[in-house]
Amino acid sequence: xxxxxxxxxxxxxxxxxxxxxxxxxxxxxxxxxxxxxxxxxxxxxxxxxxxxxxxxxxxxxxxxxxxxxxxxxxxxxxxxxxx
Length: 83
Prior knowledge:
By secondary structure, this protein is an all-alpha fold. It is 75% helix and 0% strand. The chain has one domain.
């Protein structure tokens, strides 16, 4: 159980690093090219999905359910939580 959560956290940390790098590049270069903008958006979506999955796993564990049943939700579903 903890190994799966740690893998999710490792992925989050990696994505945060990539996001930070892209944002710094944007600041240095006064913007990103189309490929970089597309990648930044993809990283943001993946981060939202990872955080959502981790929250699902923790909630299931807290309420005595199997955290292994948590699934990555579609990007459109996770992204619409913000609205």
